[in-house]
Specification:
The chain is mainly β. 6% of the residues lie in helices and 32% in strands.
């Protein structure tokens, strides 16, 4: 049996050039979480000296988070444990998500993986990967 999946287009696809963005994002796995369960929000910023990735991990213990850099891919995995007790309690609404998660981001070439740093404060994981000297912008003087 063959299963076919239909990809739906975003509302932006209705514009003359919207389909270009829709197609580009669909082909870029760095913008999609690895699983549909727990998927922490992520901000990625770049300046002249580094790539910085901030991941929102409220309720996750620092010891339950693992960071790897492999072949240009930064991967953050972890697990958020449930603190619910079900003894003699009845829940009417549960919105908090618990379980394991994985987020991966393809980093550009020219970053210095050896000097990457991570910090975990107030439920936000910050991973800073500096750029190598060769990747930093150079100023060219006009003669």
């Amino acid at each position: 049996m063959t299963t076919l999946s239909k990809r739906t287009r975003s509302p932006a696809a209705a514009t003359p050039f919207g389909h270009l963005f829709d197609d580009w994002f669909a082909k870029t796995p760095a913008f999609y979480p690895a699983s549909r369960g727990l998927s922490p929000a992520m901000d990625i910023e770049e300046d002249e000296s580094a790539i910085t990735v901030r991941t929102e991990l409220a309720g996750v213990n620092k010891d339950d988070v693992h960071i790897t850099l492999d072949d240009g891919v930064l991967t953050i995995t972890g697990e958020k444990h449930s603190d619910r007790e079900t003894k003699e309690k009845s829940y009417h609404l549960v919105e908090r998500t618990f379980g394991s998660f994985t987020r991966s981001v393809q980093l550009p070439s020219g970053v210095d993986f050896e000097n990457a740093e991570a910090d975990f404060e107030n439920g936000v994981l910050k991973v800073r990967v500096p750029k190598s000297e060769a990747a930093k912008p150079k100023k060219i003087e006009i003669k």
